[in-house]
Amino acid sequence: MTEPKSLYERIGGADTIARLVAAFYPRVQAHPLLAPLFPEDITPVMEKQRLFLTQFFGGPPLYSQKHGHPMLRARHLPFPITPSRAQAWLSCMAEALDEVGITGPEREEMWGRLVITAHHMINTKEEAHDKE
Predict the structure, then answer these.
(1) What is the mean pLDDT of the chain?
(2) What does the pLDDT read at residue 15?
(3) Is 76 annotated as contributing to ligand binding?
């Protein structure tokens, strides 16, 4: 009996993760709530995200090998992540998933994990200017 494939394998592995990251970050950079949180040179952020999503969806533990335990919430504490910003992040990710063509049960599984994670990152109360 063969081992069940990981979500990472079912979506197409490294190529799909790279395409997802490439589709996601231009949206983040263009979003008025998200752009201020990111550096002008987004390349290092994209690389970390590629490593993280590979691991997060069941691929090799690339992020941990290079950067240690993800400690997502702790690593994001310096940034004011409001409920509106978490929703904006999810909106950008939904568009990127659409662009890459991830559908069906894999999309649902990915989305569920992404929603939980985005909400876990919220560390700042909503500010009036953050609402769209």
Answers:
(1) 94
(2) 98
(3) no
